[in-house]
Amino acid sequence: MCQREKPLSFHHLIPRKMHRRKNFLKEFGKKEMKKRGINVCRKCHSTIHKFWDEKTLGEKYNTKEKLMETEEMQKFVAWVKKVK
After folding, report:
1. Do the Cβ atoms of 14 and 26 come closer than 8 Å?
2. Is 83 a residue whose pLDDT tops 90?
3. What is the Cα–Cα distance from 25 to 56, expressed in whole angstroms?
4. What pTM, to 2 d.p., does this model score?
5. Could you report the per-residue pLDDT of 27-73, keeping only the tens digit for each?
6. Where are the domains of the chain?
7. Interacting residues of 13 by C-beta distance below 8 A, sequence separation 6+
8. How far apart are CA 37 and CA 23, in angstroms?
9. Which one of 19, 22, 65, 80 is most buried, counting C-beta atoms within 10 A?
10. Distance, CA of 78 to CA of 10 (rounded, Å)
11. Helices (H), 1-84
């Protein structure tokens, strides 16, 4: 997301907490939920979880594009790119 050269962690775009819920299983399927994710730096990962709860992430922001369309992430990424 921020394109900094830092160690990356895997962010589940549909949080694991939601994988057992019937509505998520019906909409995405277990395989899709497990593989749908992005590698992000620790700062970006923590910020994503700071801004939204698991249910909101799974329902509204379940792609990188949807996350990056938000004003919160755009502002954060612009700021974090300046930080070393």
Report:
1. no
2. no
3. 16
4. 0.87
5. 999 999 999 999 999 999 999 999 999 999 999 999 999 999 999 99
6. 8-80
7. 36, 37, 38, 57, 58, 61, 62, 63, 64, 67
8. 19
9. 80
10. 21
11. 22-28, 30-35, 42-51, 54-60, 64-68, 71-80
